[in-house]
Every structure is written in structure tokens, then in C-alpha cells.
Amino acid sequence: MLKRFLPNEYVQSIFEITPQFLKERNIHGIITDLDNTLVEWDRPLATPELTAWFKEMRDNGIQIVILSNNNEKRVHKFATPLGIPYIYKAQKPLGKAFRKALAIMKLPKEQTVMIGDQLLTDIFGGNLSGFFTILVVPVTETDGLATRLNRMIERRILNWFNKKGLLQWEGTKGGE
């Protein structure tokens, strides 16, 4: 049962995910979480480094959809200047928003990756929907209230994975 929370890959940062890495796995589309995956949950806009990462993906023919449980105002303000389609109030880990993201990209799930910083929403939802999943270390240690509750459960699962040798989790970046 707990293996449904196990990502296919684990990276320290979104910037470790390159077009070459994705193409080697026949991945042409990214469904990504927003808060604490791409930027801090309280940062309204993309950093220049993240904007360049999005451009590199697009230049290599990789589509992106932002899939967030946050509200429309938050996600719209972030995604619109970048020209990235988005889904807000996604209700991850439920599958409906994942299917909607696929429809936007017109790609099969076998060619799509789900990237996120939370096991209980992003990775679990991606795994249930049959995606290749990548867990990233949260970009900051601070979270909203609901996420803090998820993190307590997550730590127990991550410790279990670590003890079983399934995933070496190094925690958060501490706001780097």
C-alpha cells in the first residue's frame, strides 16, 4: 500500500530535470505542482531561473501544465505571464484534474510526468493515475496550514521508505 506513495525518481530541484532526461524516457509533457515545487508557496511570480527552465522545455518540444490545489487567483497570477495552461483547485490526488491536464496537452499518460513536492497529493495522485512521477525537495521549509498537516504524515512514510532502502530522502532545502 505505501508503495503507491513512492515516486519513480527523486531530485533535489526542478532544475535537475532536463529535456534530455525526459526524452530518454519518451516523456513529452509535464504536469507540475506549483507551490514549493516550482517556487515558494508565497512567491507570486516565477524567478528568472525558472522562466529560463520553462523556455528550455518548450524549445525542446515539451509541454507543461500547472496542476495546483490552490485557488484561481494564485495560480492565474503565476501561470498567465508565462503562457502556461493551468488547472486550479485540482483536488489532487483525485484523478479528474490529471485527466484534464492530459486533454490539454493531447498526450497519453505514458508520455507524461507528474512532478511535485508532496507524497500525499502529487506523487500519490500521479501514481494512481498511472504517470511516471518525480518527487522534488520542497523549495522552502515553510508551508500553509493544510500542507503542514500533510508533511507530518509524509515524514513517517519517507522514514519507512528510507529504512527499507527505497528512497534516500534528504529533507527540505531550508529556503535556499
From TrEMBL:
It holds the Pfam family Hydrolase. InterPro entries: HAD-like_sf, HAD-SF_hydro_IIIA, HAD_sf, PGPP1/Gep4. GO terms for molecular function: phosphatidylglycerophosphatase activity. NCBIfam families: HAD-SF-IIIA, YqeG_hyp_ppase. This is Uncharacterized protein. It comes from Caldibacillus thermoamylovorans.
